[in-house]
Write a structure and sequence with these properties.
Belongs to the iron/ascorbate-dependent oxidoreductase family. It is a single chain. An 8-stranded mixed beta sheet has the order 1-2-10-7-12-5-4-3. It has a 4-stranded antiparallel beta sheet with strand order 6-11-8-9, with no helix packed on it. A two-stranded antiparallel sheet has the order 13-14. It has a single domain (30-348), classed as B-lactam Antibiotic, Isopenicillin N Synthase, Chain (Jelly Rolls, Sandwich), CATH 2.60.120. Helix content is 27%, strand content 19%. It has 9 helices and 14 strands.
Length: 353
Amino acid sequence: MSPGKTRKDLPEYEYPKETTEKLDYADLEALDISKLDQPGGIEELSAQVLNFINKNGFFYVAGHGLTDEDIRRQYAIAEQFFDLPLEEKTKYLANTAAGDFRGYKARATGEQAGKDNDERYNIPKFTPEHERPHPQLILDHYEEIKTFSLHIHNQILLPLLRIFAHALELDTEYFVNQHRYTAPGLEYLRYMKYHPSPRPLWAIGHTDYNTLTFLFHQPISGLQVQTPLGWKYIRSSPLSIIVNVADALELLSGGYLKSTVHRVVRPPVDQRESARLSLIYFARPESQVRLERVRSPLLERLGVKAEGEESLGGVTAEEWARARIAKDHRFRAGLVGSREGEIIAGVKQKYYD
């Protein structure tokens, strides 16, 4: 089998209907990254980040260059993937026990069925280190998945990293140089499907362990963020991408940029019988980047010093990610009876539910 060179026909993906219930939504700001090309654009966007980032680690990105058709096309591929026979999907299982995310994760069954109700397929960076078998469906659409992933990295992630670096008064390429696409790293695109379940909590409150997470429009409600006023829903819009700050950026900023605490709950009554399909991109630093606080003039003036900074300074982005993946695997697989406290180097895992 080899990657397909042309787009093959797929049933067109149609979004589910929006809920009619009145939900308590978080008030998020939007960064229009198309302004970076304008005089004074990076200064305006950096000031906007500093104004809202400590209030809420979720924000929207507009001006990202992807069309609704681009996004729905990826959902169409995801929908077809999850419709494949289970025996076909399990040929591509991820080795999560070793902290390897690449490939398929089935939803829990049997005694562990209460642990989760989702299945996932993770497609890593399109670089030689990540060459691996894929189902023929993925190979048939390999080039368009690659184009979509590269657009997110080059046209959305890198501009945001320049904005964050400028906000911290660093060289604008500082974080960009820690996220080179061709360098070894664990960045990936995820297709994810939550199956209907009576459980009120579909994903426990948690933070992500990468740099930034990109979540694309999905009308099935359920994503919530923890705020000082409690849990609030995140509104989804076809015109913008939901982005959240994750662990790596928090650690690199000495805790100044907060990793967003979020969870997924059972959808409202009028969406309760529908599966929740998700399209997510996880951006991560290069494997050997050490997760230690940057020497930022802004952080120095503010006196920001991370707790446990000395012990975590020797931990790389890959070590951090693999430790969290493996820890999560042990709990989901029933190898440990409760969630473990330590991630790595004495740093504790926090739980929010």
